[in-house]
Design brief:
This protein is mainly α and about 180 residues long. The protein has five helices and two strands, in the order H-E-H-E-H-H-H. Helices cover about 45% and strands about 5% of the residues. It starts with a helix and ends in an 8-residue tail after the last helix.
Length: about 180
């Protein structure tokens, strides 16, 4: 992934872009991969007045803040294919068949592990019910397109503000 991000970013610079923003919307490896590529290319191209930034708030911060909002409003915790994912897909393409709407009423998966823990392993409760293993972690039954729009709008808002900050600070700081 790092090689692909680097080559795409360098090609954008070669074709005339002065600012390249790399961001991802899925996966926990972003800080290690995306940030390192941005830092490496920023060091390489900043002396030429070209910049590469890693926009990290579009993923972890936005997702964390939306999860917090959901919990504060009585929604269950979830992660993979839970309310945030399913609702976003309903908002972006609910009419395109991206979500099996007929299954939302039964879209309850394996329970969310406690903070800092990974799913059920050797040290899990032997009295816990068997895994559903349906790809859902948490409960997506209350997913709606309206919640998806809210999650999507948060991501857009955070990304725009962070990118505006990058551009406003050009020349004031070193590599991002």
């Amino acid at each position: 992934l790092a090689t692909i991000l680097e080559r795409v970013s360098e090609q954008a610079i070669a074709t005339g872009f002065k600012n390249v923003v790399i961001m991802g919307d899925h996966g926990g490896g972003q800080p290690a991969t995306y940030a390192e590529v941005a830092k490496k290319l920023e060091a390489k191209y900043a002396p030429e007045g070209k910049h590469v930034y890693f926009c990290d708030e579009v993923y972890a911060k936005a997702q964390g803040d939306f999860d917090k909002w959901l919990q504060e409003h009585g929604y269950p915790s979830s992660s993979h294919a839970g309310i945030p994912d399913t609702s976003t897909m309903l908002y972006l393409g609910g009419d395109k068949g991206w979500v099996r709407k007929d299954l939302i009423a039964t879209a309850e998966g394996d329970p969310m592990p406690p903070p800092g823990a990974r799913g059920r392993g050797r040290n899990s409760d032997p009295n816990a019910p068997p895994r559903k293993n349906n790809g859902i972690t948490g409960d997506a039954r209350r997913s709606t397109a309206a919640l998806g729009k809210q999650a999507f709008d948060i991501k857009i808002d955070y990304a725009v503000k962070q990118i505006q900050g990058f551009l406003a600070n050009q020349g004031k700081t070193t590599a991002q």
